[in-house]
Amino acid sequence: MDFTLSAEQSELRSTVSSFLRKRYELEPSRSAARSSIGWQPEIWQAFAEEIGILAATLPEEVGGDGGGAVETMVIAEELGRALVVEPFVSTVVLGAGLLRRAGGSKARAVLEGIASGRERVALAIDEPDSYPSGYEVATSATRAGDEWVLTGTKTMVGDAPLATRLLVVARTSGERRDPAGLSLFLLDFDASDLPADVKVHSYRTIDDRWAADIEFRDVRLPAEALLGEADHAGSLLDPAMDEATAAVCAEAVGLMRKVFADTVAYAKERRQFGQPIGSFQALQHRMVDMHIELERSVSAAYLATLRLGDAPDQRARAVSAAKVTLSRAAKFIGENAVQLHGGMGMTQELAVGHFFKRLTAIQAEYGDADFHRVRYARLSDHRSRAATGEAGVRSGAVAVG
Amino acid sequence: MDFTLSAEQSELRSTVSSFLRKRYELEPSRSAARSSIGWQPEIWQAFAEEIGILAATLPEEVGGDGGGAVETMVIAEELGRALVVEPFVSTVVLGAGLLRRAGGSKARAVLEGIASGRERVALAIDEPDSYPSGYEVATSATRAGDEWVLTGTKTMVGDAPLATRLLVVARTSGERRDPAGLSLFLLDFDASDLPADVKVHSYRTIDDRWAADIEFRDVRLPAEALLGEADHAGSLLDPAMDEATAAVCAEAVGLMRKVFADTVAYAKERRQFGQPIGSFQALQHRMVDMHIELERSVSAAYLATLRLGDAPDQRARAVSAAKVTLSRAAKFIGENAVQLHGGMGMTQELAVGHFFKRLTAIQAEYGDADFHRVRYARLSDHRSRAATGEAGVRSGAVAVG
Amino acid sequence: MDLQYSPADEEFRDEVRTFLEENLTPELRRAGRLATSVYHDHEASMKWQEILRRRGWAAPGWPVEHGGCGWTASQHYIFSRESTIAGAPALSPMGIKMVAHAIIKFGTEEQKEYFLPRILTGEVFFCQGYSEPESGSDLASLAMQAVDDGDDLVCTGSKIWTTHAGEANWMFALVRTTRGPKKQQGITFVLVDMKSPGIEVQPLVMTSGEQIQNQVFFDQVRIPKKNVIGQIDDGWTVAKYLLEFERGGSPASAKLQVQLDEIAQAAANRPGPNGPLLDDPLFAVKLADLRIRCDVLEVLEYRNLARLSEGKNPGTASSLLKIINTELSQDITVLALEAAGPQGLAYQPHATMPGGPVHDHSPPQDGYVSGEAWQAVAPLHYFNDRAGTIYAGSNEIQRNILAKAELGL
Amino acid sequence: MDLQYSPADEEFRDEVRTFLEENLTPELRRAGRLATSVYHDHEASMKWQEILRRRGWAAPGWPVEHGGCGWTASQHYIFSRESTIAGAPALSPMGIKMVAHAIIKFGTEEQKEYFLPRILTGEVFFCQGYSEPESGSDLASLAMQAVDDGDDLVCTGSKIWTTHAGEANWMFALVRTTRGPKKQQGITFVLVDMKSPGIEVQPLVMTSGEQIQNQVFFDQVRIPKKNVIGQIDDGWTVAKYLLEFERGGSPASAKLQVQLDEIAQAAANRPGPNGPLLDDPLFAVKLADLRIRCDVLEVLEYRNLARLSEGKNPGTASSLLKIINTELSQDITVLALEAAGPQGLAYQPHATMPGGPVHDHSPPQDGYVSGEAWQAVAPLHYFNDRAGTIYAGSNEIQRNILAKAELGL
């Protein structure tokens, strides 16, 4: 049991934190997000060159620093605290996680590009008629000689408008709801310069990020576009999605730390009826409940992060536990931060309004609370819980007379 | 829209209420409930002879006063307010409701006996391995010449130890989970004098009432024991169960009125930290939320009561809406009444502890909240709600471009 | 006791239905259905007001001599309920439902003659100047300085949360004419011509991106005393009178039921974990829970209506109803957002009909919408509806009121 | 960062497991499993204390010189966790975990010599005399009059919520020796021989029917001054010191996880609407939610443990953990009651092992139980567990503490 960061990890945290404090302000970042560019490329470059967070968790053989889950957590939390919109999780956690597992020279080249800040990756998986995060895929890739022919429509492809590469999940065998039979393809991508057989609709999201709907009409891909083994994308997706989920949980912790601190500060300062509103017991207890949700969230993010290396079921259960916890907390803290700020909390004048939107969006990302509740239930042994690793519960004989 | 009682109904309310205030005290009623007798027969007799509530809602041809759903609601609420344990709902609402619908001379005789206070009826329906309130019945009745042979085990037969008659739901055709194929049988019953082929285990319930598990081993019943048509008990049970459910909703309103009033009074009187605990804002808001739950409950009880005469689906939906509302309120008000009374609320010294137990039990009676949520969902048209009668919502065309 | 309308009410309801069927154009219904907040598309709303005015139904609550309908409480409820169910746009409450009542009760003959007919036609369109940056929940602490200067009051300060200040040509406002020991005293209720020199409107951008609320700055604005309603220094009396019209006045259950119907219909066509989302037991039960709360709210409203019909005071019922309906409404927006799925995260105000301009949003040139319009409405409605528990006396304040007035704590 | 035990801790855990497997008889486990509250069957509890004492593990938290184990914070946690998972009965906390620490810290040599070994053997069994009828949440307002009379204090008044007063032969109590402006001053911490003349114990019957709590009346009870712990008038210092041992001392997650395992196992065999209850999506999700809260609580406990291991003060963590674990525990009792179904409404304390006698209940002669023992436990546990949010500083008080100490409000 150890909840302290190593010296290097602490150093990483303070590097990221002080960079963001100095260089990442809310106003300009919103302006950039809402501009036609949609982000701040110079910030991304600084992430790579000045504070090295794009390489921090990548393997050493592609120019990375070999950091692990804790490093990802530290970075994501700090990015959350500053409400960074640039595509860290989709590129560095999810994208790189898939590429790393897929292996091969093409993947390796992209990983090197990620480490140096040149490449950004978006994963195209959800479809208009599929249950979100359910791996329900109708988009197909069929073999035609040496090539693959890709056909189908993807929706809400996060960060696609900024991406240099797409990772597309397509069905190469099996029925639409079959968890097997999926394959992963790597495509060059530039939303501003598209081939005729790819149609992209880009849009802003409610939290000032960007996404796109993408239609593939018989797009021909070379054989080497296939990453990993055909029909087995699930074995890449499962762990990489769990890593991404753990990372957004950490990001949510950062978001909540900020809005909670702002709320308590506001309650001490804002006066009504001749006293600070923070002196009213009903509001005090509400803020205590927010504090409790935050402390639970921190623990849940640890749980997910520190179980990423466990066996698949333990890993998935811990990640689902975390996402359920964080989603609930994000809603409770977000909504109450707004309520306690009163009307001002509903405007874009204060940080809380912007953070609230991200806290709303994050609840739905990588599976909403119900998705993860059901997954957790399915993974829990019906009779008695299996050991959740060394520190988990060991069920004794529970039968009684 | 009319929410006022008629002069006769108001009169009925004050008659019941003043009788109970004078003659039904908590201490002696608890003692009786815990004695081997288990209730106060003299009170029951007074219900029949002095205030006429056993006949109030029975048809005139069996000596009743022909009252309806509103009269039942008025009586049940007052009984709840005084925490009456005597078997009003099971005998006068559920039992009589089944007998009335079944018709026939035998049923009529029992109804006359109910009106005069001689008869008490218990319904045996749930079984040890059946989902509560799910009409899942394995107990069988098979024809043998002119007779029926009854075999099976019933559990939690409410008020059976005090009953003079049992109504037993048995399967006469179909599979165990088949909603059709059930029949209703009327048996003479005396828990203290049983035939060899009937085995009864009586027990007290957590709310100081009585119930029993009953085992029937090839019990031979005469042909006329069958009430109504064979295989069609469902058509009797559905409306009678809904009436009983509406009645316990009204009873719950009475219970909650009492514990809520006690809680507010206690909060005004009990002092800690030099002031009444009712002056603390967090507790004030809690009590306001209890008040809101109570007002919602009153409305829900009206809804159920005033829809009992509607078409089956409207009736069932209103009753389920009420039971869900009342169950939630009973839990919230019961638990918080205890919490606000502190340790004393957990003892049997104050009324609140006793009422809390009934409020706990009542949540599970006639289907718990989840049972009714699911039933309500099933009865709600998937596209848009049908008109819920004249005052219900009428859905316009809801499609938008 | 019964839950039936009287035959006369049924007849009235049919009359209303017929009128709505004949007059609600698809465009107007669209404004009702695609609204993202309680503020509907301004143009559609004013168009509908004009149609109602011609039928004599624009201001049914006014005294008959000023153009009201003399309806019973039931008729008001039925009219409001049927309009909502049919998808009619909501009218701005500021003029007809609020300040007009103050003018009728406390106004001079000249004020009545000038304002009332113009409010009906929309020639005069009001906004409300109550809250100030430092006076929110504690409204009576308001500080907008109004100095007596001959025939005028000269006002300096600022008002906030001024809905539709950009569209309005008049404002009704509370200003501070005298400072005394009791903060409720020394307040004056005034009507302000928005074209007066010294007024500056600064839109507030909400989280939804919509600019409906504003901050209005007053710099030495001259308000003729003939535009005072009631007595100088006695504006609190007028404001308290109006408060009754603001809280719990109209039925909320109908609107919420329609929203739930829309969610159900949408969920029948959205993918769930196992077939349509509507068949997912977890989703179905959440929907059932909200519908049940709506059914119960409807009965609560009928009970309140019955009290009003008997001429009784609603008492604390308006606080109770405000809490119940705003919290239910918020929970419904949460379920809608959940039903919307990933498309609910797309920011697409161009697919909706918001109550005002949208800041910093360029619709795509091809008008593309990811998913359907209701999915685009969902997040904006969720954001905007957070106001429900904040405005018109936050729900914390309502609970304080109930604790004191209803429970005697 | 990691969530693993160290190799030394793993070794220790295995040692504890082996000990538990060898020494926990089925009867003792039964007392743990069929307990209806935090108070386990008294006899089983004392038997287990004796077995632990022989192993040297009855009072691991004491200083080694008095019989403690010198364990690390991890070892304490592991021991407690493993004991719970194995189903060991809980020991009464009053003696070993509470008053003993006061005696060790503030007691005289004679007091230590007399009481500590006897607490271990059970020859001395303590109850706690803190609360009074008029002093609950506001403990410092306590009023039990203690008049100085030579070598004695003479006490008159009453104490309430005195757990196991019937079984106890000693009480530790706070009494009022001086009345001054500050209520925390003038309180004295005393040990009272329960056989002293003038003491009368009156059991309180709880809603569960159990008589574990009592009111204890003092009528001119003489307490020798040699039984004062610490200084006269300075008892608040002792009480505050003990409070640290009462709140959040031991891990709650293990017990709650075991309860959830039991619910899951039971629900696999109970009928649901469609096959086993455990397969009902609504039930499964409620169970998952509670398990998730437990998983998170476990990590919160580890974080607290890590702080303690570093020698840091737990700060407000004990209030936080108290709120989280009592509210979770109550929600678990609700799910258990739901899983129990109709049989959960049967009152059958004879099928359980309550922590004290049951009032007004005659078990059936044939020992019949409707359903299974866990179903009989469910309602009693639900009733008794309501105490969790009331005792040891109600959760409202804990929230006040957090608001002040943690948030600075």
UniProtKB/TrEMBL annotation, chains A, B:
Cofactor: FAD
InterPro entries (UniProt xref): Acyl-CoA_Oxase/DH_mid-dom (IPR006091), Acyl-CoA_Oxase/DH_mid-dom_sf (IPR046373), AcylCo_DH-like_C (IPR036250), AcylCo_DH/oxidase_C (IPR009075), AcylCoA_DH/ox_N (IPR013786), AcylCoA_DH/ox_N_sf (IPR037069), AcylCoA_DH/oxidase_NM_dom_sf (IPR009100)
Gene3D superfamilies registered for this protein in UniProt: Acyl-CoA dehydrogenase/oxidase, N-terminal domain (1.10.540.10), Butyryl-CoA Dehydrogenase, subunit A, domain 2 (2.40.110.10), Butyryl-CoA Dehydrogenase, subunit A, domain 3 (1.20.140.10)
Acyl-CoA dehydrogenase/oxidase N-terminal domain mapped to chain residues: 6-117
PANTHER family in the cross-refs: ACYL-COA DEHYDROGENASE, ACYL-COA DEHYDROGENASE FADE28
Name the record gives this protein: Acyl-CoA dehydrogenase family protein
Domain Acyl-CoA oxidase/dehydrogenase middle: start-end pairs: 125-219
UniProt keyword annotation of Oxidoreductase present: yes
Residue runs in coiled coils: none
UniProt keyword annotations, A-Z: FAD, Flavoprotein, Oxidoreductase
Domain Acyl-CoA dehydrogenase/oxidase C-terminal, first and last residues per copy: 244-374
Pfam families for this protein: Acyl-CoA_dh_1 (PF00441), Acyl-CoA_dh_M (PF02770), Acyl-CoA_dh_N (PF02771)
Top-level taxon: Bacteria
Family per record: Belongs to the acyl-CoA dehydrogenase family.
Organism, scientific name: Brevibacterium daeguense
UniProtKB/TrEMBL annotation, chains C, D:
Pfam entry (one): Acyl-CoA_dh_1
Keyword terms of this UniProt record: FAD, Flavoprotein, Oxidoreductase
SUPFAM superfamilies with a match to the protein in the record: Acyl-CoA dehydrogenase C-terminal domain-like, Acyl-CoA dehydrogenase NM domain-like
Cofactor(s) listed in the protein's UniProt record: FAD
Domain annotation Acyl-CoA dehydrogenase/oxidase N-terminal: ranges: 7-123
Top-level division of the source organism's lineage: Bacteria
Sequence ranges assigned to domain Acyl-CoA oxidase/dehydrogenase middle in this UniProt record: 127-221
The keyword Oxidoreductase is assigned to this record: yes
Domain Acyl-CoA dehydrogenase/oxidase C-terminal: start-end pairs: 233-405
Family (UniProt): Belongs to the acyl-CoA dehydrogenase family.
Protein name (record): Acyl-CoA dehydrogenase family protein
Organism listed in the record: Brevibacterium daeguense
